[in-house]
Amino acid sequence: MRITLIGAGRVANHLALVLEKKHRIVQVFSRDKQNAQNLADRVNAEAINQIEQLNRQTDLVIIAVSDQAISELIKNVSQYVPDSLIVHTSGSTSLSVLTESHLRAGVFYPLQTFSFEREVNWSDTPLFVEATNTQDLNVLTELANELSDCVYQYSSKQRQTLHLAAVFACNFSNYCYDMAKQIVDAESVDFNLLFPLIMETANKATQNDPQKMQTGPAMRGDQNILSKHRNLLINAHRADLENIYKIMSDGIFNTHHSK
C-alpha cells in the first residue's frame, strides 16, 4: 500500500516507522519542511510542505496532527487526493469531521501514549478503526491487524468515551507522578523510592477493579492524616497542590462513604 503521512510529530513518526516495514511511505507532509525531511529520510519518502504537492496516486493518507487542525486540513487535502482513503488518528475527533469534505474517510486510532524517546510495543497496543464503507473498513482492519493483536471496530462515540477515560488513566495519572516528584524534590528525597509503589498500583489496577483496590487516608476517612497532608502543602506554599489534594481526597471519600 502507498501511504502518505500528514504530520511529522510523535504519532506520525511511530506510525511511519512501523508501516514502512510492509508498505511504501510515499510522502511526509509538514508545514515545517525540516520536520518533514527528518521523518522522510528515516522511511525513504519524499518530504513536502505544500498540500498541493500531494501525490494523487497515494492509496492511504493518514492525518496525524493536533485535533484542532484536522477539520481545516481535510478541506485542503481532499481536493488533491480525491480518490484516496483519508483517515485521522484522533481519539476524540468524530469521523464526520472528515466526511463533511471527503467521501472515503476513516479513523485509525492507536490507544497509546507516544514519545520520541521510547519505542512502542505495537502488538499489544489497541487499535480502533472506523470507515464510511465496508470495503475501506476491511482495508483499515487488515492494516491494523498487521500491527496489533488488539483491533476493534468502534464508533466515534465509543472512541471519544475511551479517549476521555484515557486522559484520566494516562495524562492525569502522569501528572500525579509529576506532582509527587515536585513534593519529594523540594525536600531532596529520592523519587526512585516511589517506583515499587507506582508499579504495584498499576499492576493492581490492571488486574482488578480499581475501585476495590483503593487505599489511603481518604478511603479510610482519616481526617487527621488528610489535615496534616494539606497543612504540609500549605506551609510549603503549594496552594495549587493542596487544592488538587482536597478535590481528589473528597472524590475518593465520597466514592467509598456515600452509600
Structure description:
This is DUF2520 domain-containing protein. Residues 126-250 form the DUF2520 domain. It comes from Acinetobacter venetianus (strain ATCC 31012 / DSM 23050 / BCRC 14357 / CCUG 45561 / CIP 110063 / KCTC 2702 / LMG 19082 / RAG-1). This protein has helices at 10-19, 33-43, 67-80, 96-99, 134-147, 156-185, 195-207, 217-220, 223-235, 239-257; strands at residues 2-6, 24-29, 46-48, 60-63, 85-88, 105-110, 127-131, 151-153. By secondary structure, the protein is an alpha/beta fold. The chain has 2 domains: 2-154, NAD(P)-binding Rossmann-like Domain (Rossmann fold); 160-257, ProC-like, C-terminal domain (N-(1-d-carboxylethyl)-l-norvaline Dehydrogenase, domain 2, Orthogonal Bundle). Strands 3-2-1-4-5-6-7-8 form an 8-stranded mixed β-sheet, with helices on both faces. Helix 9 (223-235) packs antiparallel against helix 10 (239-257). The radius of gyration is 22 Å and the shape is elongated. The mean pLDDT is 96.
Oligomer: single chain
Integer count of domains: 2
- The CATH class of the largest domain is Alpha Beta
Number of helices, where a helix is a run of at least 4 consecutive DSSP H or I residues: 10
Query: So, CATH architecture of the largest domain?
Result: 3-Layer(aba) Sandwich
Strand element count? 8
Mean pLDDT: 96
Proportion of strand residues: 5-15%
Which descriptor suits the 3D outline? elongated
Provide the structure class: alpha/beta
- Let me know the largest β-sheet: 8 strands, mixed
Which spans have pLDDT < 50 for at least 5 consecutive residues? Answer: none
